[in-house]
Design goal:
This protein has about 600 residues and is of the alpha/beta class. It folds into three domains: about 5-235, Aminohydrolase, N-terminal nucleophile (Ntn) domain (Glutamine Phosphoribosylpyrophosphate, subunit 1, domain 1, 4-Layer Sandwich), CATH 3.60.20; about 250-445, 3-Layer(aba) Sandwich (Rossmann fold), CATH 3.40.50; about 450-590, Rossmann fold. About 35% of the residues lie in helices and about 20% in strands. Bound molecules: 2-deoxy-2-amino glucitol-6-phosphate.
């Protein structure tokens, strides 16, 4: 989703802005641009192509400057066209980049039009530029403060005025923005990774903040117009993960990194104690009477798998919510609830809003599971667990998902330990199983050639079914989501027993059905469900544990995942589904790491 980079310095900042945009490409975008201060009138370059192509244009036109702002845009209001790309100017004086949505842009537009402003774009952002311009009397800071007071919605902005060559102003509410300070320069960015190598000193702005940046200095103002000191954080960032190595796509690389990512997430854990979770202690867990899991997309699927773990292991009632729906319903809340937002990026607007809604209801025992240290979510909750997936670049979440599952399993087992439902023998058994998991994952991933063969058939269809039962039903949902988002094949997941209640009508030889078949208590029921498909000429592709008795005879295609892995089995079964989506996408030659219309970090509601 939209990415912002800005810099004010004493040297040419354009190479740094372009590098910053490259590092934000993972968020997903459909156009990009850079603007710099120049005596007389600001200059800019914008395009609907990739950042590399913007960089070529910039070098052709010799765009340079010591004050500049840059942006990757993921269209919400207005088509992905060059004229809608940011930076957006107001009367060649004010330059703005924006992430978020100004919900009252229509009424603001009417006011500004009456004042004589002419709109050149279809964006909501243009009202920001003109509004700042309308308040501008030579002091950008006060113009931005006055403008932001009129916005409804979410925003992170970076702005400069062409009349103030050594100054940049930023503001945020609901969308992320971090400021960075160097010796003789100052920066703004949506994500600290954009500034790696330029500074280690960061200030995470809070909702309602406005920040005034000059080379080597910044002053922050809160929403009440008071000057505030936000804490500096020294963060050494690594760009590790940013290179493809021998892989064809980041998604493939990230799928194969999972054994390592799981091992990293487990780290040195040798006991299920509250201290595994940063900021938590025994009291965090003792009082818990219910768990509320919040997330979107893949992170929501992680919650659905974990629901069964919390119930089985810790004997706790669990509510799993799609974050974008949660706050629009009346909730009957239990004050003993542990609220667990799950998010790879930690910046997903819907999940953040759901978390804030829960906090507003007085549920303040909150524990975030995320993959990005210092992300909004990790800073907002009382305790947190940072997964060890490392930077995930592919839009399709893979290693972030399996490491979220590890974190959730640890949480369920730790709650169980504190509540007395996990005796010490069982604790050792869980820890051993977790330690054994990376090797089991490697064995499953080694079956990639068979998945490629499946993909050559499945990729020729436009629809597919995914079936699972128990904790493998959300795994089927995750498999279907992957196939949709990467291979653009319509896929639906069903709890296998549901098929005969309607969807079976769609089963024909043209409808491949992918089944997750663990060797668990529901196996015989699942086999009956598979028979229902076979009897209608459906093609079955089965991911099965050894010992299930399922084999490649009788019109079945079977991929073996090894012995049943107990409660952790869903983690092994999702791996072939990730690979299947990936190879179907390869066969259909889609843009795998940046699938159409999607963004890595979904920072608008
Ligand atoms: C999964 O492949 C997706 N790209 C998407 O569903 C993602 O999981 C969702 O947008 C939530 O993101 P988050 O984990 O960063 O909050």
């Amino acid at each position: 989703m939209c990415g912002i980079v800005g810099a004010v310095s004493q040297r040419n900042v354009v190479p740094m802005l372009i590098e910053g945009l490259r590092r934000l490409e993972y968020r997903g975008y459909d156009s990009c641009g850079v603007a710099v201060h120049r005596a007389g009138m600001p200059r800019r370059a914008r395009c609907t192509a990739r950042v590399n192509s913007l960089a070529r244009t910039i070098s052709d036109i010799h765009l340079e400057g010591s004050l500049g702002i840059a942006h990757t845009r993921w269209a919400t209001h207005g088509a992905p066209a060059t004229e809608n790309a940011h930076p957006i100017f107001s009367r060649d004086l004010i330059a703005i980049v924006h992430n978020g949505i100004i919900e009252n842009h229509e009424s603001l537009k009417a006011i500004l039009t009456a004042q004589g402003y002419e709109f050149q774009t279809e964006t909501d952002t243009e009202v920001i530029a003109h509004l700042v311009h309308s308040f501008y009397d030579g002091d950008l800071l006060s113009a931005v403060i006055r403008a932001t007071r009129m916005f409804r919605g979410a925003y992170a902005i970076a702005a400069f005025s062409n009349d103030e060559p050594g100054r940049m102003v930023g503001a945020r509410d609901g969308s992320s923005l971090v400021a960075g300070i160097g010796e003789t320069e100052a920066f703004l960015a949506s994500d600290a990774i954009a500034l790696a190598g330029y500074t280690n000193r960061f200030i995470f702005l809070e909702d309602g903040d406005v920040v005034d940046l000059t080379p080597g200095n910044l002053i922050t103002w809160d929403r009440n117009g008071r000057s505030v000191k936000r804490p500096d954080r020294m963060i050494a960032q690594s760009l590790e993960g940013a290179s493809l190595g021998s892989f064809s796509h980041y998604m493939q690389k990230e799928i194969f990194e999972q054994p390592l990512a799981i091992a990293r997430t487990l780290g040195e854990i040798d006991a299920l104690t509250p201290s595994i979770f940063n900021g938590a202690d025994r009291s965090t867990f003792e009082s818990v009477g219910k768990v509320l899991l919040l997330g979107c997309g893949t992170s929501h699927h992680a919650g659905l798998v974990a629901q069964q773990w919390f119930e089985t292991i810790a004997r706790l009632p669990v509510q799993v919510e799609i974050a974008s729906e949660f706050r629009y319903r009346d909730q009957c809340h239990d004050p003993r609830t542990l609220v667990v937002p799950v998010s790879q990026s930690g910046e997903t607007a819907d999940t953040l809003a759901a978390l804030k809604y829960a906090q507003m209801m007085g549920l303040d025992n909150t524990l975030a599971i995320g993959n990005v240290a210092n992300s909004a979510m990790m800073r907002t909750t009382r305790s947190a667990f940072l997964t060890g997936a490392g930077m995930e670049i592919g839009v399709a979440s893979t290693k972030a998902f399996t490491t979220q599952l590890i974190a959730l399993f640890l949480l369920a087992a730790t709650l169980g330990r504190v509540r007395g439902t996990v005796p010490s023998q069982q604790e050792s058994a869980y820890l051993q199983q977790l330690q054994d998991l990376p090797i089991a994952c490697r064995a499953v991933l080694a079956q990639e050639p068979q998945i490629i063969a499946w993909a050559s058939e499945i990729s020729q269809h436009e629809n597919a079914f995914y079936l699972g039962r128990g904790a493998h039903y959300p795994i089927a949902m995750e498999g279907a989501l992957k196939l949709k988002e990467i291979a653009y094949i319509h896929a639906e997941a069903y709890a296998a027993g549901e098929l005969k209640h309607g969807p079976l009508a769609l089963v024909t030889p043209e409808m491949p059905t992918i089944v997750s078949a663990p060797n668990d208590a529901l196996l015989d029921k699942l086999k009956s469900n598979m028979q229902e498909v076979r009897a209608r000429g459906g093609q079955l592709f089965v991911i099965a544990d050894s010992g299930t008795g399922l084999s490649c005879a009788n019109g079945l295609r079977v991929l073996e995942t090894g012995a049943y892995f107990g409660l952790l089995s869903p983690i092994l079964h999702v791996l072939p589904m990730q690979l299947l989506a990936y190879h179907c996408a390869c066969a259909r030659q889609t843009d795998i790491d940046k699938p159409r219309n999607l963004a890595k970090s979904v920072t608008v509601e």
